[in-house]
Automatic annotation (TrEMBL):
Domain Inner membrane protein YgaP-like transmembrane residues, every copy: 5-69
Pfam family, one: YgaP-like_TM
Cross-referenced InterPro entries: YgaP-like_TM
Protein name: YgaP-like transmembrane domain
Transmembrane segments: 12-30, 37-63
Annotated source species: Halomarina rubra
Keywords in alphabetical order: Membrane, Transmembrane, Transmembrane helix
């Protein structure tokens, strides 16, 4: 699978911050016994972290969006 970069700049920083936030929410939900919510926030955190690390977003690709800096 070819993952062409389509996430960059502020978009990448935002995804990183949101991934961290969802990770904290995951821990809080798990400690309160809300496993369904913990699973959902874990998936969101993992997806956003994947986007930030690989600089690729499947939804951006499907919509033809590219937030990388063009030089």
């Amino acid at each position: 699978m070819d993952l062409d970069r389509n996430v960059g700049g502020i978009d990448r920083i935002g995804r990183t911050v949101l991934a961290a936030l969802f990770a904290v929410l995951t821990l809080g939900a798990f400690r309160r016994g809300r496993r369904g919510l913990a699973a959902l926030t874990l998936l969101a955190s993992a997806g956003l972290a994947f986007n930030a690390v690989t600089c690729f977003c499947g939804l951006n690709a499907a919509l033809g969006l590219d937030t990388t800096d063009e030089e």
